[in-house]
Amino acid sequence: MAQYSKKFAALDTNVVHAGRPVPNIEGAVVTPIFQSSNYLMGDETSYGDVRYIRLSNSPNHQVLHARLAALEGTEAALVTSSGMSAITSTLLAFLQAGDHLIAHDKLYGGVQTWLDHEAPRLGIASSRIDAKGGGWEESLRPETKVIYVESITNPLMEVLELEAIVAFAQRHHLTSIIDNTFTSPVNFRPADIGFDVVVHSATKYLNGHNDIVAGAVAGTAAHVERVVHVLNHLGGSLDPHTCFLLERGLKTLVLRVQRQNASALQVARALARHPKARQVNYAGLESDPGHEIAGRLFKGCGGMLSFYTHTAEQAARFVERVRIPLHAASLGGVESLVVRPARSSHLGMRPDERAALGVTDDLIRVSIGIESADELVADFEQALDEA
Length: 387
Ligand code: PLP
What we know:
This protein is of the alpha/beta class. It is built from 14 helices and 14 strands.
C-alpha cells in the first residue's frame, strides 16, 4: 500500500505536495486516477481493511485527505460527493433523535431547507437566530448538541463573532461546526481558533474551476472518523476521477484566492463610489460592519461580494448589461459570476421573508474570478452607468 508524504510548513507548499504518494506511483508526477472500485484482499484476517470506493479509501482519496488536513491545520480530513453530503453527513454524525442544534439564521439555502424539512423527520430540532449580536444563550436547551455557522454568510457577506461562538460552544460542551467555503483555508483556518469541525463545498474555491461538485470535512481524527462512519453508510463518497480533478484544482488554490481577494477589494471599492450602488457588502471595505473581525481573523476577505442598486429594474439591467461575468449561480471559480439572490437561491421564499433577511429584488451577488481586475471594474461601471 502506498505511503503518503507528511505536511510542510507553508500553505503554498502543502497545496501542491502535502500527502502526495511516496514513492511516486510508477514515477508519475501527479497522482494517477485509480479507477478501480475494489482491491485485492489481504489475508483472511484483513476484511476490516477492505478497500472500496464507497469507503473513501482509494489512493486518490488518501492523498486528498492528507492534503486537506494539512491545509485546514487539522489531524484528519475527508472528501465527499458534494458540499451538501459533507454537511448532512457531519450533522448526522453529531446529532440524533431528540437533539437540538443552534444555527445562524442566514445559511446556505440547501442547509436551511434540510434543517426545516428533513432534520425534524429524524427528530432533530433547530433554532436559528440572528447571531450578529450574540444571543446564543437564549436558544440553549438541555438537549442542544451542536452550533453551526458559516465563516462568511451568503448573500450578505456578514462575518460573525466567531471567537465568541467557539467560547460559547466550549462553555456548553457543544460541537462547533463551521462551513468555511467562502473563506477557504487560504484566508481563514477555523480549527486554529478552536472550531471542532470544518465543512466545505469543495465545488467552490477548493476546486475553483466550475467543473465538479464535491465536499470536504476536516477536524480531529476522532471527529472525522464519526463522519466517515455515517458517510460510508449513506454512500456519499467522491468518485476517483472527481478526486483527481479536485486534487488538480487545489494546487492553484493559494494563487487563485490571493488574486480573488485583491480583485474583489478593487471591485468593491469601485462599486462603493458608484452613485447607482446603494450599499456594498464586503468585509474588506473599512465601512463594512464585518471589517474589524475580518481584519483580526482573516488573511483576506475572499472573492464574494454583494451590493444593492436602487431599484429591482436597475439590478435586472445591470445583470443584462455586464459583459465579462456570466449570469449563473454557484461561486468560487475562475470565471466571474453575477446572480440576483431574490431571483435564484431565495426564489422559494415569500417577498416579506426575503425582505426580513435583506434579500430584496435590488440585491446582486458577485463571485469574482481571476480575470483582469481593471477590466472587471470598467465592465461593472459601464453596466451600472447604463442600468
Ligand atoms: N455551503 C455553501 C456556503 C454553499 O454556497 C453551497 C453551495 O452553493 C453548499 C454549501 C452546498 O455545496 P454543494 O453544492 O457542493 O453541495
